[in-house]
Amino acid sequence: MQATKPKKLLDQVRDVMRTKHYAYRTEESYVQWIRRFILFHNKRHPQEMSEPEVEAFLTHLAVHQDVAASTQNQALSALLFLYRYVLKQPLGDSIDAVRAKQSQHLPTVLTTGEVKRLLQGMSGIQQLFAKLLYGSGMRLTEGLRLRVKDLDFGHSQITVRETKGKRDRVTVLPQTLTPLLQAHFTQVKQIHQDDLAQGYGEVYLPNALERKYPEANREWIWQYVFPSTKRSIDPRSGKTRRHHLDQSVIRKAVKRAAQKVGINKKVGCHTLRHSFATHLLENGYDIRTLQELLGHKDLKTTMVYTHVLNQGVLGVRSPLDV
């Protein structure tokens, strides 16, 4: 009987990440960082390396690649995962590498007039989605992952799941969008019914939910609010499903609209979230309420918006304006 050939290291990484239910995009990012780490050290096997080699790689990223702090931290997370869960050789608590500098930039915020112009420069599904981001303060990925059941029109609220901190939260559903979203639902439901009629209609569900509710992936309430225009093959299961819209569709639409209406600021999807937060503070809402709506674990993260208010945190006016 022929011995089973051991799996390649990166395939082992994927298996462990799927067992722990990591997101597919995280899986791809971690695999890429581990591959870069191996190539940086001339294809040495990570089992033959430890803290000094990890430190050298992270230092290289900061000094020679000039990566952002968040990028370097992602690379470190990937390597910590590799050594702890795949190789069973946890790294020491202290990695002594040159660290990339944390960005101190204040977020870009649009005025209410600029938001209005930006939204008017868009159309169709992209415009509806952008309005929802600005009106609710959701992150791009949170909006894309919305399921039909997550929108509560009766209470004008949205339950945001699969958040950055892995905690569900509730945010506001703009009442002005209710008729637009209900009309959108009619179109989405027709797409789902057509898929079912053609023998498809399944949607991705996290592993635990798929095991607990094996028939739920075909139900209407579990479908994405903003489905893709095409069915695609799930890279993990190999099943043909209709996923949600790709991030690039919305990102490009927002960027094009900003250029079209002549907004001379660096505008992206996250700018709508920043604008939502700042405009709520301008309208008198307290910082704790804002923290809950945005889903920030630490109040310090929310406090950054007090520094971009029109009149500043102390309401200071220039002496030239007095």
Automatic annotation (TrEMBL):
Record domain Core-binding (CB): where: 4-87
Gene Ontology CC terms: cytoplasm
PROSITE patterns listed in its UniProt record: CB, TYR_RECOMBINASE
MF GO annotations: DNA binding
Keyword DNA-binding found: yes
InterPro entries, A to Z: CB, DNA_brk_join_enz, Integrase-like_cat_sf, Integrase_catalytic, Integrase_integron-type, Integrase_recombinase_N, Integrase_SAM-like_N, Tyrosine_recombinase_XerCD
Domain Tyr recombinase residues, every copy: 105-318
Gene Ontology annotations of biological process type: DNA integration; DNA recombination
Primary location recorded for the protein, binned into one broad class: cytoplasm
Record keywords, A-Z: Cytoplasm, DNA integration, DNA recombination, DNA-binding
Subcellular location, record wording: Cytoplasm
Segment forming the signal sequence: none
PANTHER family listed in its UniProt record: PHAGE INTEGRASE-RELATED, PROPHAGE INTEGRASE INTD-RELATED
Function: Site-specific tyrosine recombinase, which acts by catalyzing the cutting and rejoining of the recombining DNA molecules. The XerC-XerD complex is essential to convert dimers of the bacterial chromosome into monomers to permit their segregation at cell division. It also contributes to the segregational stability of plasmids.
Assembly behavior: Forms a cyclic heterotetrameric complex composed of two molecules of XerC and two molecules of XerD.
Family that this chain belongs to: Belongs to the 'phage' integrase family. XerC subfamily.
Protein name: Tyrosine recombinase XerC
